[in-house]
Amino acid sequence: MAVRIEFLGREASIIIFILILAQGFHYSRTCDCDQQYFCNCSSNHLQQVPKVPANALGLDLSFNQIESIYMSDLSPYSELKTLNLHKNKLKFIHKDAFKSQHKLEVLDLSLNNLKNLSSSWFQELNSLQQLNLVGNPYTTLGPAPIFQSLLNLRMLRFGSPSLREVYKNGLDGLTHLDELTFVGSNLRLYENGSLKAARPIGLVSLSLQNLFQNNPELVSKVLQDVSHPETLLIIKDVALRTNTSTEPFKSAREGGTKSLSFQNSTTTDEAMTSLLMVMDGSSLSYIGLEDVHLIGQGWWQKASYTHYESLHTAYIRNLDIQGFFRFSSMMQLGFLLVHLHKVSVINGTVFVIPRETTPLLKNLEYLDLSQNLLSDLTIEPTLYTGFGAYQNLNTLNVSQNVIKSLGLMSRLATKLKSLTYLDLSHNSFVSMPENCSWPATLRFLNLSSTKLRKLTPCLPSSLTALDLSENDLMVFNQRFPQLTTLILTGNRFMKLPQGELFPRLQTLLIQRNALRMFNGNDLRRFKTLQYLEASNNNFVCSCEFVSFFRHDVDHFITIRDNRHDYVCDTPFTLRGDAVDSVRLSVFECYMIPAVLVLCSLIIIVLGLIVFTCYKFHIIWYLHMTKAWIQAKRKPAVGRLVEELRYDAFVSYSQHDAEWVEEILVPELESAHPPFALCLHKRDFQPGRWIVDNIIDSIEKSHRTLFVLSEHFVTSEWCRYELDFSHFRIVDEHNDSAVLVLLEPIKKETIPKRFCKLRKIMNSRTYLEWPEDEEKRSEFWGNLRAALQRDE
């Protein structure tokens, strides 16, 4: 039993260990932490706060299934500055869950299941600047103060369709609040002063939906608290259809509201007329309509007597007008148009401004008609300048329309005498006329994404900023003496334009082209260039360019975009590598000099080898060694069967042949017993390689008799015979050499490379041929004894 329990204990330990490893792997897999210590754990079906590095600065847990946050879940992460718990299933947060987050600046708890808000959550969040509580099912806010400890809070978002009652909750103590978003579409009770902060809030966004129609008195209380001349008031998600629904805006007028915007709403021309009448006499200076659906035919007569002298900006974006083509002329809004200085109608299906309407725009300075339906046929009446129209216009944006004639636009722009900024981007000009007229005041021209393929002198030379990005341009040859900013991104330029054309250029953007490289000479031609953006090009990473970019480019200009986006296109082995990370060898950078140096070194080394071989006879040594090895490889059977045929192999110089043949040979071969001598002239096998004859004769001889003389040491073949005898002495460890000095010679004349023979000469007695005939009998006796075979 004990054994069984022990086994189960080990098994449980292993299972627990595996689970721990799996959990750690799960955390590492689901949370991605970058080098800025921001951990993204979003959309990973997490049910609890995962383990992340303790020094994490940001933690994104949005779109998970976390239901509770306990006291210990976040305590290790005291360095957190951003915590996002948006769209989870939070029901419970411990009162001390955020106790260690003293540095937290952003907290998002939106779209969860929190039914109650606790002030204890925020007690230690002294650094919190942004708090989002929108979309939780709490029904009451207050009366206990909730936000009073958040003294550094700048942005607060709270409320939901579930919210029914709002009481004072501590906003009056927040002195840094800049932005407030409140959602209360089903609000039933509102205590006066609940949304009133310690000072005016810069932006207040209210989503009250049907309350304008169903409970205007409550809306009036809310507007009374948030309206102020310094506050931009945004009304979202409402339906203003009747005169009654606009009554609450009297509170906004009384509060001195200057900026009013409607977003994601529906209204009618009747309700808008009523609004204008309600706000009559106010200091309203800005009105905005974004994502608004307008019903009606544009009858504004009832508001024609109102006064809006301070209204100078109208911003309209994504306006959907039901029955647009039945909509009446804007003439009836003349009482507003004559005061406007800035008008934006973006994505509003505008195809024309009638010629009769443009004189009402005599005070207009800024006009944005982008993302509409203006064409060559309708742009001319739209920009009609008669009766003082557009006399003050300095900015015109007609981008993303269907205009096709650049010549027409230049002619119309010439009549705009105050125009300095013109945006014609995202139209389809394709070509450019040779000559154009432009207003002398024009300084900025945007022709990006207009499908231009070629530049002509049409462009005005008065420009200080020119945007030609996202076209199909390859060459730039026009001079712009005043240009300070040039944008050529997304074209097909293979090199930088000539700097002499832009004597005052300070900023050049030329990303996503076909640039191969640039160097110091290219940049010196730009006398005043300070900033360059040239990433995402097809750079050739030559040694010159890589060295210049890594070490010298900062001496000329400031690279303003990311240097890691400057990557190599060629050579193929470096494709995709950042230029800053490329390291090229000396051989790659200086191939011709490197080849010359390498060849020179090879020649020198070969010369040294040749000289060494000559000086120390290395070739000769190798040749002799090869011959001896070949001899040694011969089968030894013959030597065993056949005894030594000769008593001595006689090695002598041809100059000493007379002495050898007439004196030495007769004396030894006639002796008793006679000696068998091997002479090359007599005994070498005809037709056989002489070296083989020498080796064979030495091997078949008991001794080798060297007849030394001055002629001997200078004879090449005598040297061969002496050398092979040397090999035999070294190989067989014997003293088979017999030296006869025919005449006195100096030991130094014997080649030094034959150290063994030199040693023999130094250690043994020479047999010297005596000049005195009386001593010759002794000489012959000694020689016969030296040649005598061992018993």
The rounded distance between the terminal residues' Cα atoms is 94 Å
User: Helical stretch count?
Assistant: 20
CATH-assigned homologous superfamily of the domain at 645-786: Toll/interleukin-1 receptor homology (TIR) domain
Largest sheet, in brief, is:
25 strands, mixed
Secondary structure: number of strands: 37
Mean pLDDT: 86
CATH class of the domain at 645-786: Alpha Beta
SS content category: alpha/beta
Q: What is the percentage of strand-forming residues?
A: 15-25%
Summed up:
With 791 residues, the protein is of the alpha/beta class.
Describe this protein's structure.
It is found in: Membrane. Keywords: Disulfide bond, Glycoprotein, Immunity, Inflammatory response, Innate immunity, Leucine-rich repeat, Membrane, Receptor, Repeat, Signal, Transmembrane, Transmembrane helix. By secondary structure, the protein is of the alpha/beta class. Among the domains are: 473-582, Ribonuclease Inhibitor (Leucine-rich repeat, LRR (right-handed beta-alpha superhelix)); 585-618; 645-786, 3-Layer(aba) Sandwich (Rossmann fold). It has a 25-stranded mixed sheet that branches. The chain has a five-stranded parallel sheet with strand order 34-33-35-36-37, sandwiched between helices. Strands 9-11-13 form a three-stranded parallel sheet. Helix 17 (690-699) crosses helix 18. The model is unreliable at 1-29 and 636-641 (pLDDT under 50).
